[in-house]
Specification:
Layout: H1 15-29, H2 36-43, H3 47-53, H4 57-76, H5 79-82, H6 86-103, H7 105-113, H8 119-144, H9 154-167, H10 180-195
Helix pairs in contact: 1-7, 4-6, 4-7, 4-8, 6-7, 6-8, 6-9, 6-10, 8-9
């Protein structure tokens, strides 16, 4: 895959601020229903000012989806996710995923809405499936180590865990009384109590 070279932005209009606005509009209206004219109007710039940063709308989508996915995969590479008992590594990945969701809420929300309608979306879905496989393998390893109850299929357990994590996009709002760590504690306490074979 060829790497798209992103041009440096003009002063006052950073790529990050453009991406933030684009993701907000994609989430409000849907990616397909959003035009570059609308993005320009929302930013208060011309379309050419956007093209100074990125070559196309699809590149904005790719960058947004990669931002969410890169953050999730980074969690799986942290020391707590690669050393120790599988149940503890699984818990680390779940906690880290909640923190990513809280920190990158609009980007994760957009990721969860893609349906594979383009090559960029298909690539994002393939990466999501790879992340799911990592989690399923952790559940299976924890079961083999005797720490997770064996009467539920590891793939089902993985889907249930991350179905719960992903549902947070529907109601969690950063900056409220519930911090990301509090949220992760609550989710892990309720979910892992039913998963573990022993306290």
């Amino acid at each position: 895959m060829t790497e798209v070279r992103v041009r440096r932005g003009r002063p006052g209009h950073s790529l990050d601020s453009l991406l933030d606005v684009a993701v907000a509009v994609f989430n409000e209206r849907g990616y397909d229903a959003t035009s570059m004219e609308e993005l320009a109007a929302r930013l208060g710039v011309t379309k050419s000012a956007i093209y100074h940063h990125v070559p196309s709308k699809v590149e904005l989508l790719r960058m947004a989806l990669d931002r969410a996915l890169d953050a999730l995969f980074a969690v799986t590479a942290e020391p707590g996710a690669v050393t120790g008992r599988a149940i503890d590594r699984l818990e680390h990945v779940v906690r880290g995923s909640v923190r990513v969701l809280a920190a990158e809420l609009p980007f994760v929300t957009l990721l969860l809405r893609v349906r594979g309608n383009s090559a960029v979306e298909e690539a994002a879905l393939a990466r999501r499936r790879e992340f799911d496989r990592i989690v399923t393998d952790l559940v299976r390893a924890a079961e083999e180590e005797g720490d997770v109850r064996p009467d539920v299929d590891p793939a089902v357990t993985s889907r249930l865990l991350f179905g719960t994590v992903n549902s947070l996009t529907e109601w969690y709002r950063p900056g409220g009384s519930l911090s990301a760590d509090d949220l992760a504690d609550a989710l892990v306490t309720t979910a892992f109590r039913g998963l573990r074979t022993r306290p």
